[in-house]
Amino acid sequence: MRWRVEFYNERQGILARYGIEAPLPAAAVLLGRSAVLAEHPPAPARRRLSLFERAKRAGGHDGSGWVLYRIAKDTESEATASV
Question: Residue 36: enclosing H or E segment and its boundaries?
Answer without folding.
Answer: helix 25-39
